[in-house]
Amino acid sequence: MHHLVTVLPILLVVLAVLLFRIRRTMTAQPVRTPMLISRIIMLAVLGALVGGGLVPNGLIIVSIVVGLVVGVGGAFLSLYYTQWDTTGPEVRYKANPYIGSIVVALVVIRIVMDMATFSAGGSSILVTESPLTLVLYYLFVAYWIVYYMGVVRRARALMPSTRRG
């Protein structure tokens, strides 16, 4: 029972974040290039920091590569299904609500599972040493970096030359 009391608030916060994220992807958003570029930089730095802190072995390298490959593939698929609107004063995009939400949900669920295992005393292993956690982490990082880069690139291509800065 104590374990449920410890994990339940975390699960409720995670559910709220997921619902907010899903709701946000259902609406068209203006392309805010500086914000997207800052997200790209932040994710790249976080990916490098986590990767730099790992002791490389075959399983870790395979986990990272699998996560990166699946993330890049998912981003291209999501970009293919992204809807674009150029009728207003700015370029707007409506992301596919399913692909990005699945990526976020997988990572959040894995983090909650890792936290629950760690708080229950079931494991003293660092979260980043788990191959599944690494796959999902790098899937998340690669997906969002490539997706945001694709949004910025496509928005620039769609923007008439009179509106380009």
Q: What can you tell me about this protein's structure?
A:
There is one protein chain. With 165 residues, the chain is mostly helical. It has one domain. The chain is 72% helix and 5% strand. It has five helices and three strands, in the order αβααββαα. Strands 1-3-2 form a three-stranded antiparallel sheet, with no helix packed on it. The longest helix has 28 residues. The chain is globular and about 55 Å long. The protein starts with a helix and ends in a 7-residue tail after the last helix. The model has no long low-confidence stretch (mean pLDDT 81).
Structural descriptors:
single chain, 165 residues, mainly alpha, 3-stranded antiparallel beta sheet, 5 helices, 3 strands, globular
Order of helices and strands: HEHHEEHH
Q: What is the average of the pLDDT values?
A: 81
Biggest sheet details: 3 strands, antiparallel
User: Number of domains in the coordinates?
Assistant: 1
Structural class: mainly alpha
Strand content: under 5%
What is the count of DSSP helices, taking H or I runs of 4+ residues? 5
Shape: globular
Spans of at least 5 consecutive residues with low confidence:
none
The N- and C-terminal alpha carbons lie at a distance of 58 Å
The helicity comes to: over 70%
Radius of gyration: 18 Å
Number of strands: 3
Strand order of the biggest β-sheet: 1-3-2
